Amino acid sequence: MKRAKIFTALVLALLGLAGIAAAQRAKMIQIKGSDTLVNLVQILAETYMEKNPGAALAVLGGGSSTGIAGLTNGTCEIANHSREWKQKEIDLAWEKGVKPRFFVVAVDGVSIIVNEKNPLDELKMSDVGALYRGDIKNWKAVGGPSQAVSLYGRQSNSGTYVFMQEHVLGMKNYSTDMKEMNGNAQIIEGVIQDAGGIGYVGVGYLFDESGNVRKGIRVLKISNGGAAFSPLDKAAVDSGDYPVSRPLYQATKGKPSAAAAEFIQFEISDEGQKIVEREGFFPISAAHRAANEKNLR
Amino acid sequence: MRKKRWANAKEAAIRAFFFTCGVLAILVLIGIFLTLLTTAIPAFREIHIGKFLTGKVWDPTSPEEVKYGILSMIVSSLLVTFGALVIAVPIGIGVAAYLSDVAHWRVREIVKPIVEILAGIPSVVVGFLGIVLFAPAIAKLFHIGHGLTAVNGSVLLAIMALPTIISISEDSLNAVPRAYTEASLALGASRWQTLFRVKVPAALSGIIAASMLGMGRAIGETMTVLMATGNARTFPNFPQGFLKSVRTMTANIAIELGEVPFFTTHYYALFAIGLVLFVMTFLVNLVADVILRKYQEREQ
User: Fold this and answer.
1) Is there a domain that residue A134 lies in?
2) Residue A18 domain flag
3) Cα separation of A143 and A131, whole Å?
4) CATH number of the domain where residue A98 is located
5) Cα–chain-centroid distance for residue A57?
6) Residue A268: which domain range?
7) Are A179 and B62 a contacting pair at CB < 8 A?
8) How many Cβ pairs within 8 Å bridge chains A and B?
9) Does residue A155 share a domain with residue A90?
């Protein structure tokens, strides 16, 4: 009974806080979406707010779908997304009078990792797809040791899950044997402990504090009908030669408001892109930059 | 005279207050059940209920063919829970017997509160232990690549169910009339024989009820299994499924409910899983309650 009372009091207090927060939020630029982007954009926003004391930005995660739905429903001003909008989502936005504009703010290479005991150094993109579809169940089939493949991946609410499915699996189902982990860090932990393990993680998660690739994993080179490239090779990712890479987007409702435009400008400036690199992502290419400039106008 | 009327009114008010509290608990339960029911039923406009319960593949975001089969998850939940009971019930009864009959009262005064503290460990902490401690140990023990398996979940759920099982089992062992023990000892039985042939059978319904309550706790646990069992959607065969990754009903709801578009078949289907789970835990608790009541009646 006493516990119930304390609980009620807590709930009431939280509701009150939420009310205050909601009142403040009115002036804030709300940014919502991809979990891949949330940390990066948070740091960008903090740096930006330090330099511009009047600015107020709030960055939330929740996944690309959440951000896209938020932009359409008007609960956020900028949506972070790590995949392109589905036709259904674009249609729905237009129906509601939202004409999204897209900005590429960083480039992410999804790296394919295996346990360091696995002698494999490179894989074909089609083989990665076959492994994750469950068509190949033993490493022998792709030139590795005779050992069962143990798949690690993200949960279905992750943008990376959808990206892999569209980009690497060829819009086919994941194997039901794949272990669906809570996040990039858990995938790495799993692969480090599992000699037959394979995982996909954002490049930003591969390094330890001193900037070296973490012990216990090997980052594979990936080929797509030609030479194989490593996601650690900046030039290859920048030119698009590394096949498992993707632009990371922000979307606004039509032409961004002056405040939002200023923030995006900061993100794609040299200073912003330095932060992008420091956080383990790749800076945007010249082509992306040109498209961004056009969308800002 | 006036004073008495005032006292009566006060008494009536207090009685009304407690009555409301009691009714409120029932109303909340009915409310939750009805919400669950009304949100679950629309799922079956598009999903065949037979396919829902017997389909092995759950893939609501599939780009190929959307499938809503929850049999793998039901079996996974039962598998993990069964494993947890196999571990927790013997240990639980052992500890309860030790505490009630063997331990010195000073030891009991220390051990019993500690066991009860065990119940207060947050499930996310238990799950974390599963990832960093038990999973690698299990992988080594069974020579498998990774330890994020059903048996890992079982071990953790056993830890979480133990306090319930120990506490209620010990109470029921203590409730066995002294005369039983004395008669048994007087007939020349050893303490061991008295404990396991007289007291445990006499307290059996209490022990069974304790196990059922522990089972109810285990089957509904979410965070721990979500972190520790790998969440693969594959169908676990018996018994080798224990060493495979599994996804329980609770973990699936927790993974997908945060992200699902509202008022879609997928959304309703998650509530339908919740309904199945609710019915299962309700039945387990009901059976436990009936057994416990029988046992109390017999004692009187």
Assistant:
1) yes
2) no
3) 13
4) 3.40.190.10
5) 20
6) 26-107+247-296
7) no
8) 79
9) no
Does residue A152 sit in the same domain as residue A37? no
pLDDT, one tens digit per residue, over A166-198 is 889 988 999 999 999 888 888 998 999 999 999
User: What is the pLDDT at residue A1?
Assistant: 45
The distance of Cα A58 from the centroid of its chain, to the nearest Å, equals 18
Q: Are the beta carbons of B230 and A65 separated by less than 8 Å?
A: no
Domain boundary among A239, A258, A273: A239
Q: Do A180 and B136 touch (CB under 8 A)?
A: no
Same domain flag for A191 and A251? no
CA B263-B269-B271 angle, to 5 degrees, is 85
Q: Which of A75, A133, A179, A189 is best to mutate for the B interface (most B CBs within 10 A)?
A: A179
How confident is the model over A22-56, as pLDDT tens digits?
A: 544 446 899 999 877 888 899 999 999 999 988 89
Give the domain-ending residue among A215, A239, A263. A239
Measured CA to CA, the distance from residue A149 to residue B146 in angstroms comes to 11
Residue A84 falls within a domain, yes or no? yes
Crossing angle for the helix pair B150-174 and B71-97, to the nearest 10 degrees: 40
SS3 A254: coil
Instruction: Say if A182 is an interface residue toward chain B (CB within 8 Å).
Output: yes
Is A188 among the domain residues? yes
Q: What whole-number distance in Å separates Cα of residue B120 and Cα of residue A137? A: 42
> How many domains in chain A?
2
Contact B227 A182 (CB under 8 A): yes
Query: A124 and A220: one domain?
Result: yes
Is the pLDDT at B270 greater than 80, yes or no?
Answer: yes
Domain match, A117 and A218 both: yes
With an 8 Å Cβ cutoff, is B71 touching chain A?
Answer: no
